[in-house]
Amino acid sequence: MQSDSSVEDLFNSAATPAPKTGNGGKKGPKRVLVIDDSPMIRQVLRTVIVGLGHRVDEAENGVKALGAAMANRPDLVFLDIHMPEMDGLSMLEKWSRHPLLGKIPVVLLTSETDPEMVTAAARFGVTDYLSKPARPQKIREKVEKFLS
């Protein structure tokens, strides 16, 4: 098993830079979409993100996430890989081809350490990587990085 820092290094070497914000620079609260099949993980992210003054939409799989994003375009996305119905990589493939959604920063939030999986996510346009379990401070850093 690889360490979190070595997986992050792998991701960073494979990732391409993305825009800092997906909302054209508008001021005020931003919208964050959290996509994870674990209610507990979604709750932790919601608590941290709302505490920073932003709005949170949630989805437990890729199918629901695509619908949620079309209804309310997010400014930032946290995405798990392993989910039922449509996993994160399948969702990301569709997401990255959409003219508007493909420009939104996506943070991969996963316990996945398989280098091939992480590299594939980077090729599909994932902007950043955060390993599970994510500490609140790390979540805050990612939110501030993309929404400040």
Task: Sum this structure up briefly.
With 148 residues, the protein is of the alpha/beta class.
What are the SSEs and their pairings?
Blueprint: H1 4-14, E1 31-35, H2 39-51, E2 55-59, H3 62-71, E3 76-79, H4 88-97, E4 106-110, H5 115-123, E5 128-131, H6 136-147
Parallel strand pairs: 1-2, 1-3, 3-4, 4-5
Helix pairs in contact: 1-5, 2-6, 3-4
Would you write up a description of this structure?
The protein is of the alpha/beta class. The protein has one domain (4-15, 30-147): 3-Layer(aba) Sandwich (Rossmann fold). The protein has helices at 4-14, 39-51, 62-71, 88-97, 115-123, 136-147; strands at residues 31-35, 55-59, 76-79, 106-110, 128-131. Strands 2-1-3-4-5 form a five-stranded parallel β-sheet, sandwiched between helices. The relative contact order is 0.21.
Number of E strands: 5
Low-pLDDT ranges? 10-24
**Overall structural domain count:** 1
- Helical residue percent? 40-55%
Corresponding CATH superfamily: Response regulator
Indicate the structural class. Answer: alpha/beta
